[in-house]
Amino acid sequence: MAQRIYLDYNATAPIRPEVIELMCKIMDTVGNASSVHEPGRQARQRV
After folding, report:
1. Distance CA 16, CA 35 (A)
2. Distance separating alpha carbons of residues 36 and 42, to the nearest angstrom
3. pTM metric for this prediction
4. pLDDT per residue over 13-22, tens digit each?
5. What is the C-alpha separation between 23 and 17, in angstroms, rounded?
6. DSSP 3-state assignment of 38?
7. What is residue 26's predicted lDDT score, i.e. its pLDDT?
8. Which residues contact 43 (CB under 8 A, 6 or more apart)?
9. pLDDT given for residue 1 in this prediction
10. How far apart are CA 20 and CA 41, in angstroms?
């Protein structure tokens, strides 16, 4: 068998590459989604 088959989705699941890419972009920004200033409003939109 050349390819592994992941069956333990109860513990965790593999993350799709496009999700990792988007998460890295989001985590590179700052802002409190509860704040009323511009960075906060942008963070709220992302959430």
Report:
1. 31
2. 10
3. 0.52
4. 889 999 999 9
5. 10
6. helix
7. 85
8. 29, 30, 31, 32, 33, 35
9. 63
10. 23
